């Protein structure tokens, strides 16, 4: 199994109560291996969170990860529209390509 770790930081002034992202894993041949939802749970304002997700593939069998967009984004009334989608910066410290 492959354990992927994500570091997320909410740069908004308001807490995000729940952020769920539709995510696509591509295999070594570039074909879609899995379409799944990753629940990042709560993301407090200005705080860093690490979330880990396990997939039933060897890590070297995953070539790319595409964050398709947020399917759930909840928070207080002052949370900006599309707060979970706007201003996302994606990067990877591994050979795995991360797209969004």
Fold blueprint:
Layout: E1 2-9, E2 16-27, E3 32-39, E4 48-55, E5 62-75, E6 97-99
Parallel strand pairs: 5-6
Antiparallel strand pairs: 1-4, 2-3, 2-5
Structure description:
- The chain is mostly beta strands and 100 residues long.
- It has no helices and six strands.
- A four-stranded mixed β-sheet has the order 3-2-5-6, with no helix packed on it. A two-stranded antiparallel sheet has the order 1-4.
- A hairpin with a 4-residue loop joins strand 2 and strand 3.
- The mean pLDDT is 91.
- Distance linking N and C termini: 24 Å
Rg, alpha carbons: 14 Å
Give the quaternary arrangement of the chains.
single chain
Shape: elongated
Structural class: mainly beta
The total beta strand count reads: 6
Strand content: over 45%
Helix/strand order, N-terminal first? EEEEEE
Biggest beta sheet attributes: 4 strands, mixed
**Count of DSSP-assigned helices:** 0
Low-confidence stretches: none
The overall pLDDT average reads 91
Strand order in the sheet with the most strands: 3-2-5-6
Helix content: under 10%
Write out key terms for the chains shown.
mainly beta; four-stranded mixed beta sheet; 100 residues
Offer a quick outline of the entry.
The chain has 100 residues and is an all-beta fold. The chain has strands at 2-9, 16-27, 32-39, 48-55, 62-75, 97-99.
């Amino acid at each position: 199994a492959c354990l992927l770790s994500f570091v997320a930081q909410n740069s908004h002034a308001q807490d995000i109560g729940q952020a769920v992202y539709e995510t696509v894993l591509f295999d070594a041949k570039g074909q879609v291996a899995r379409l799944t939802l990753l629940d990042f749970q709560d993301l407090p304002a200005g705080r860093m969170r690490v979330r880990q997700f396990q997939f039933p593939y060897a890590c070297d069998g995953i070539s790319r990860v595409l964050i398709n967009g947020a399917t759930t984004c909840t928070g207080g009334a002052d949370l900006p529209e599309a707060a979970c989608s706007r201003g996302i910066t994606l990067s990877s410290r591994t050979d795995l390509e991360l797209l969004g």
